[in-house]
Amino acid sequence: MSRLALVPLFLAALVMAQQGPVKKTPETIKAEIETDVIRARLDLASSQRRLAALTQALELRKLEAEAALRAARADAAAAPADAEQTKLKLEAALANAKAAVASADKDRARAELEVQARLANAELSVEYAKVSSVAQIARLQTKAADIASGAKVSYPKDPLIDGVLHISDRRIPFNGRVDDKLSDFVCSRIAFYNAIDSEAPIFIVIDRSPGGSVMSGYMMLQAMETSKAPVYVVVKGYAASMAAIITTLAKRSFVYPNTIVLHHQASVGLSGNVTQLQEQLKWSKVWCERIFVKVAARIGTTVDEFVAQMYKGTSTGDWKVLGDEAGRRKWVTDVVDRMAEDSLFNATAVPPVQAEPNPDGFNAGKTQDGRVRQPLPLLGPCDLWWMYDPTVEFVLR
Length: 397
Fold this sequence. Notes:
By secondary structure, the chain is of the alpha/beta class.
C-alpha cells in the first residue's frame, strides 16, 4: 500500500475521533495496524541510513588515520637515508680536501727530493776527489741513490732490448794503452759497482785500445771473472791484442758491424845470453799460452790452429776483422746496430795521461816511414807486451 492511499484513512480516523467514540470495525483496526507497520518500517529505514552514514564516516576516518600513519612511517624511514646521504657528501668533500692537501705535499716533497739529490750528487763529486776507499764511495753512492729513489734507473739483466744495447750508468771507460793505471781503475770500478749491486750488469766500454801489458790485462780478466755482477765488454771503435783478448773472454761482448777487432801473438823483447834468451822465451810462451788457450777454447779451436789461421789471414799474423765477421767467428757474442747510453750520472773518468819522463833523452819523433816513435815504460817482473798499433813504433827500454 502506498503512502497516498493511507491519507484518506488518516482523515477518516480524525473525523470519527471528533464525532465521538466510534465503534471500530475490523477494517479500521486493520488499517491502523498497517499504519503502525508502515511507520515502523520508515523508522527502521531511517535508522539504517543513519547507521550506514556513520559506518562510512568511521571507515573514512580509519583510512585517513592509516594514510597519516603510513606518511609518518615513510618520513621516519626517509630521515636516516637523508642523513646518510648528507654524511656521504660531507665525507666525499673531506676526502677531496685531503687528496688536494696530499697532492700538494707530494709535489713539495718531490721538489725537496730533487734539490737534495742535486746536493748529494754535488757532494759525491767532491768526495770522489778526496776519498779512495771503495766502501766509503759505495756508501755515498747509496745515500745519493736513496735520496733520488724517485728517479732510480732500472738495470735490466739483459741489456739488449729490441736490437738496441742499453748501456747504464754502471759503465767503465776503457781507452788507450793497457797498463797498471788503467788496470787499477777498471778493477776498482768493478769492485765499486759490485758493492752497490751484485746483480746488475757492468759495462766496460772500449772506444779505442791497442792492448798493452799482459799482467795488467790479466788482473782485469780476473776481476771480470770473479765479479758477482756480470761484466760485459762493449767495443765501439777498435780493440787489439790484450784489449781483444779481454773482449773475447768477456761473458758477453757487443760490437758494431764496423768495429775492428784484432788478434795476434804476443810481442816479446829479450836480452842476455843464449841461455837467458831461451829461459825468457820459454817463460813468455808459457805465460801467453795460459791466457791464449782460453781464447782458443772460447772460439772453439786450439791455440796452434788459431795461430795458423792468423798467419793465413795476414802474413804478419796481425789478424783483424770487422765486427760482423768477429761475431761469426765467435770473437764476440753480439753484433748490434744501435747502442743507447742511458747513464744518469757521469762515471768517473780515467785521470788524464801525463807525459812520461824521458831520462835518456830518447828522440820520440817520427820514423822514416811516418810512424810515431813511442818508448814504452819499464814492465814489472814476469810481464810482457801484447799490443798492436801500426801507426806507432813501440820502443822497449
